[in-house]
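Chapter review. Work through the record for RNA polymerase sigma-70 factor (ECF subfamily) before attempting the end-of-chapter questions.
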Amino acid sequence: MLLRVTRDADNAPAPDAAAGNASPEPPPSLDAFLADIGPRAFRFAELGLRDREDALDAVQDAMAKLLGYADRPAAEWTPLFWSILRRRMVDLQRRRTFRLRWLLPNQPLDDDAMPDWADDGPDPARTHDGREAYARFADAMTALPRRQREAFNLRVLEELDVATTAQVMGCSEGSVKTHLSRAREALQRQLEDWR
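Structure tokens for RNA polymerase sigma-70 factor (ECF subfamily):
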């Protein structure tokens, strides 16, 4: 992030350039915002839905729906996008569950299959280690209840504040803190077991 500093005749920084007042600037356009958030949203959806194709559909649907809100201020895009994506994921999960239970009423549902990761790095050993670490993390994340997984993704990975996360999840700030605390404890236990 570039911080523009203007100086007066005495070479003192302008008051708006103080370190405490620096905040990330929103992307200049909705296209830039969507390009930036797309890969993270896909990982979020893939962990939640456990299906690559459904994750792509959910993210694309959320992006298309956000285009209808292009006239909103850029500061509203982040919570609005995550709310739309979360609702789309819940809809897909409900449809899938209903369809599978209707077709196979006495069969257990097996939706824990890990996606196939493509090798996209120049160093095979490093790529393998990274893929293995991500697979462990993804396993630990998929073992979490949905609300804990959402709270962890939005607060820790997306770095949204508590109020915005509560708005996205449709719950109170206290619930967000509880879900996040439980998610961190569960992840710590699971990831320590793999060492």
